[in-house]
Amino acid sequence: MPRLRPPLPARAGRVLLAVALAATGVAPAVVTAATATPARAAVTLNDSEVTANLWQWNWPSVAAACTDHLGPAGYGAVQVAPPQESVSLPASPDGVHPWYEVYQPVSYQLESRFGTRQQFAAMVTACHAAGVRVYVDAVVNHMAGTNNPAGTVGYAGTRFTGYGYPAVPYGDGDFHRPGDNCPTNGTITDWNNEAQVTSCELLSLSDLYTEKDSVRTKIAGYLDDLIGLGVDGFRVDAVKHVRKDDFAAILGKLDDTVAEGRRPYVAQEIFDGASNPALQARAFTGNGDVLDFAYAKGIRSAFQGSISALANVANWNLDAPSANVFAMVTNHDLERDGVVLSYKNGTDYVLANYFALAYPHGRPSVYDSFTWTDRNQSPPATGSGHVTDAVCGAAWTCLSQSTGIKGMVGWANAARPVRTVSGFTTVNSNVIGFHRGDRAWIGINDSGVAATATFPTGLADGDYCDVISGGVTGAGCAGARITVSGGRATVTVPANGAVAIHVGARTTPGDPGDPGDPDDTVATTVTVTASTTGGQEVLLAGSVPALGGWAPAGAVRLTAQGGNVFRGVAHLPPSTTVEYKFVKRAADGTVTWESGGNRSLTTPASGTYAVTETFRGDTPTASVAASFSVSATTYYGQNVFVVGNIAALGGWNPANAVPLSSAAYPAWRATLDLPPQTAVEYKYLKKNPDGTVTWEGGGNRGFTTPAGGAVTRSDTWR
Questions:
Q1: Is the pLDDT at 574 greater than 70, yes or no?
Q2: CA-CA distances (angstroms) from residue 37 to 186, 225, 228, 257, 445?
Q3: Where do the domains of the chain lie, and which CATH numbers do they carry?
């Protein structure tokens, strides 16, 4: 969750890190402010929430994946393994250098089993050039620990002891110690005891004393070094074991990102299972998004049982609300425990990833790593432990590069403006379909027999290319072609397969200049608020053939968006004045035209167009959709709320204030139902991590809700 903090002085962390590296013989020039934040050419990053998690791929392989696959497919980010120097453990009988050694840091040098500092910087540059952000797996709760064999050193040759890391430097006083500031003998004996979980050692790993500002500054110096090289965000390991206010203080020290000049994205690993609310994932959302373990486990249950259960995701007991979640089907911890799906589950795993990309829960990710037969197994590596290049096939999984997944990344990007599911259709217990408003539709068949059914798609009439079997090409569809008529499509979903279409995958036969070809028309998005009864449809009829020539039978069907709002896309001729009206059509075919004269619009010469209206002649609706938006800067852990004089706004009680989403930070937003024709007074407030409240200045804000439809309030914090 992005937050802004006041300008801070020059980073002491960089100075400390430079001194530490000098002590180890590494030239300090590699971490000076000048070289950590080099001048960069402007880059355009993909407008996408989808992340490819290339866990334990080396840096040249990540760079190649960004350039050849992730960028062109529209991925928004790539997540990479911990880049700091870690322990280099001796060979073991079940494999050389187990995967988990990278979660045992010995210094903050960017010299690891995945490559050098220079290779890491080159990878970030290559990914940015391809439009892909870089998120780093950051290990900041602990260092290597006390259980490593005598003589163990790091990948850069750094020596250390259990509570001594001179290359940072950290010493005895920088760690929680058994019997001192840890209330046990060092181990966590009660996983619901917040003091133990945050102050004692996880798996005998030396737990950093993050209450100390000097420790926070060194951690922030490491993260800022990465940001200076272009890193855009962090998946932060073991955050449950760091006090929330300590982590907020660390985040508050960080620079803005180089490529976009914004707060780095943060996804926190909060392992599930705690009954103490203070240790559950949703308690940590003030500092950023959280990984949703419960969602991954629920997906496994559905795909190994009945996928019709996916209709009830909204009722699942998930780790946090969708707006605060980094979503996944699996990750490196879970796949080895067998509690979620993995590549070993074949088509179930592939279909589950299609679903996770299609369903509007959090920021979806696709996980690729190495194949394994032993839970401690190393990725393919040299004798020294350095990971070799990822070659898709037997040793490496590359689902993120498959035609179907890349097609679904485009699907997710097209559907992103609509955060709700509509038209969920259960053909049988293992064949489903649903759409995201008027943007995209998918059908999934988790059975061994092909299934044919008719589905509501929410899409405008026309021909579309299935993006899973190939998508759109210059010659038409590379795979299946799907025809939408009356907003519905009859589709054969292959056994153990899926079919997916979206607004950007439309193709209509025709010569250039044919007004029926969407390439030669203006895509006009029409939104209308209309109250309906008895399953009435809402249509758009008008004077041109694309609107049925005033015949309701040929009118454009609009799709319900919720809250009496209907929307559709009409492909209208350019530079043309079009007359139109809205129509309601009952199940028996009876039509009701809106009152008043014909409406009129004139389309531009090219591009897109949009109109928003209210059906004339409706009686007042039961509620008004009120959208609140306020531009407000905050620090990590601080959130913004709206409160007011009516019950829906908390009755001026801050405890009942309505939380606003920071997804479009610094704009904080929420839409809620208010009573019509009502005088509303309201103000914004900020809730601080310690529970105190800060009210904005000035008098009460106010407006009167209309008789129906929607209202928008756009404000700036005072």
A1: yes
A2: 40, 8, 4, 10, 49
A3: 12-414 (3.20.20.80), 419-505 (2.60.40.1180), 518-614 (2.60.40.10), 624-716 (2.60.40.10)
